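User: Could you check the structure of this?
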Amino acid sequence: SFLNSNRKPVIECIDLLKKYFSPATVEPGYSLSIDEGISGARLSHTHELQYNYVLQSLTLWAAILEDMFRLWYLAEQDLLSTTQPYELRNTGQG
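Assistant: Sure, the predicted structure tokens are below.
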């Protein structure tokens, strides 16, 4: 099913992140921190900040995938509306 193929791997990544990493403790060689200038990085994030960013991003993505069928339905309903039909327009946005 869609949820098993798409949401389950995200949940498994969250579980692995929580199992093998801690926001407060960094094992040598396993820091999630990003240091500006290393490998072309433009940002600097501590291990804790990056851990929380990854956890929040994966949690958000899991929630979006959980509701994807409703989002698809609402998008199609909007595009196929007879009272407010979809029109292709040049908005100047590119």
